[in-house]
Amino acid sequence: MLSFWEKNSFLHHDYIVVGSGIVGLSAACSIKEQDPQASVLVLERGILPTGASTRNAGFACIGSLTELLADLSHSPTPLVLSLLSMRLKGLQKLRERLGDTAIDYRALGSYELISEHELACLEEMERLNTLLYPVLGGNAFSLASHKIGEFGFDKTQVKAMIQNNFEGQLDTGKMMHSLWQYASSLGIMVLTGAEVCSITDSGNDAIVEVNHQILHEKIAFIANKSAIICTNAFAKQFMPNEDITPGRGQVLVTKPIDNLPFKGIFHFDEGYYYFRNYGNRVIFGGGRNLDFATEATTEIAYNPQILAHLQHKLQTLILPNTPFEVDMQWAGIMAFGTTDKMPILKKISPHIVAGVRLGGMGVAIGSLLGDQIYELLNDDSK
After folding, report:
1. Dihedral, CA atoms, 329, 335, 341, 342, nearest 10 degrees?
2. Percent of the chain at pLDDT exceeding 70
3. Where are the beta strands (DSSP E) in the chain?
4. Angle 65-74/125-136 helices, nearest 10 degrees?
5. 20 to 30 A from 142, CA-CA: which of 49, 219, 295, 319?
């Protein structure tokens, strides 16, 4: 039972974006930047974004050495380079749109910890630098093993360390807060607690139905031009035939540690593990490869096995000589494909488009994908 005023002022928009994470807000902002008169509504089912936009570790990544080598082993080189370029351009777009100060972006580079069985990858470093140079405009990787002892890592497990000059870190909370503020300044309306249950193309517009939790009825929002699906792993609900597999990520953060021996962002094991300092705390996540089947879910819950493993890695590899306590832990949901890591960007119907499946690189790719969604909306040939 909506009022006359609600029906007149809230239900009809030019564009309706489903999902208020990085991609959803970026797409909404790209539309308003190019078409300031457009009416843009963003619908979010949670109080905060539900996937990984506010639940990641704050890495601004393009890919570690072992991860990129693994990608090249099972994907065509042009595709890997194209994805790398997207990550680089996406990070540049994010920084230009919001500013480094607002998101606390720090271009400090990153480090990858190399184990005994990965030492052969060092022989590929120069070849990969040469391959990536045209995209990056410089050499990405250099040997930094002399810092292993300085950072306090276990030398029996960390046999070498590689520095990546094209990665950085940011404050995830500040990034999303700044993005919301920027969207609001453009006149974008964001409604939270709006669980979308269906999206249909009527032939003349897109109808986005939302479950009204108080009135216990479905409310139909109308997108005169297009509805845009930006729900990443949760998009399977609206795109059941697409290659979208959810991937849950477990993350923990320590209490403040006196004299924390390292600063920066770090990866190991093809990017399946990642950690960084936040002041004198350590944020550590990953381990999805220990239990792919269980973590292929959209249920936001803890995996005790993985969290225990992360604590063990902290104690034995990362902080072997430093006492610590875990302060809190959480989980976020990413989306992956079974065949490649490229995002899905497509027109589902004349009035419905989608930009989803970020492959765990939403921070890097999300802003660029928002621009690409706008371009798709205005490309009559697709």
Report:
1. -130
2. 99
3. 12-18, 40-44, 59-60, 110-114, 141-143, 160-164, 168-169, 189-192, 195-201, 206-212, 217-229, 245-254, 265-268, 273-278, 281-286, 326-336, 344-349, 352-356
4. 90
5. 319
Are 251 and 362 members of one domain?
no
Q: Are 168 and 193 in contact (CB under 8 A)?
A: no
Sign of CA dihedral 357, 361, 363, 364: negative
User: What whole-number distance in Å separates Cα of residue 342 and Cα of residue 50?
Assistant: 22
CA atoms of 48 and 53, how far apart (whole Å): 9
pLDDT of amino acid 282: 98
Q: Which of 361, 281, 270 is nearest to 318 (CA)?
A: 281
**How many independent structural domains does the chain possess?**
2
The CATH number covering residue 213 comes to 3.50.50.60
Whether 234 is covered by a domain: the verdict is yes
What is the C-alpha to C-alpha distance for residues 292 and 287, in angstroms, rounded to an integer? 9
Amino acid identity at 369: L
pLDDT tier at 381, thresholds 50, 70, 90: low
pTM of the model: 0.95
Furthest C-alpha separation in the chain: 70
Same domain, 322 and 180: no
> Do 312 and 252 have their domain in common?
yes
For 196, residues 6+ apart whose C-beta sits below 8 A from its C-beta are 18, 43, 45, 208, 209, 210, 238
Whether residue 349 sits in one domain with residue 229: yes
In a domain, 153, yes or no: no
Residues 250 and 323 in one domain: yes
The alpha carbon torsion through 152, 155, 156, 160 (nearest 10 deg) reads: 130
Burial class (CB within 10 angstroms; exposed 0-12, middle 13-18, buried 19+) of 76: exposed
Residue type, 336: F
Of residues 25, 16, 22, the one with CA closest to residue 51: 22
At 205-232, the pLDDT tens digits run 999 999 988 888 999 999 999 999 999 9
Tell me if residue 127 falls in helix, strand or coil: helix
262 and 326 together in one domain: yes
